[in-house]
Amino acid sequence: MAKLNIRRIGDDALRKVCRPVEEITPRIVTLLDDMVDTMRAADGCGLAAPQVGILRRIAVVEVEEGKVIELINPQIIATAGEQQELEGCLSIPGRSGVTKRPRHVTVRAMDRNGKVFEVSGSDLLARALCHEIDHLDGHLFVDRAVRMLDEGDD
Ligand code: NI
User: Which residues are catalytic?
Assistant: First the structure.
C-alpha cells in the first residue's frame, strides 16, 4: 500500500470527466487500497480517483471510522430532501463553503469483486457520496457552494 499525491485545484485532472471501469484488474484493487491509505493519511472522509490523477470512475468514502465504502462506477439512483452544510475537499486545502445537497441519497456501484451493490446514506454520508461522485465528472464543491467561508472564519 502506498500514499498517493493529492492533486490540488488548478490541476487539469480535477476537471475531467472520468471513464468507467470496464474490468477490475489487480491494478484497480491496488489503487483502491492506496486511495484508502491516502484518504486516511490526509484525514479526509472521501477521495476520488481524479484527485490522485487517475481518470477513472472510482471513489472511496469513510465517514464512520472503519466503515470504508469503495465505489466503482457509482451512480446516484435516488435522492430525497435537502441539506445545506459546510463542506471541504482534500484538493482545496484550507477552504470550506456551504453547499446544497440532498439529505438522503442512494448510490448503485460495483465493489472490488465486481459485485453490484446499493448504499443509502443521510446527512454527512449523503454529502460525501455526492461530493465524491461530483469529482468523477470534474465538479468541485466550490462550483456549487452557496457561500464560501474565508480561512479563519468560524
Ligand atoms: Ni473533494
Answer: 132
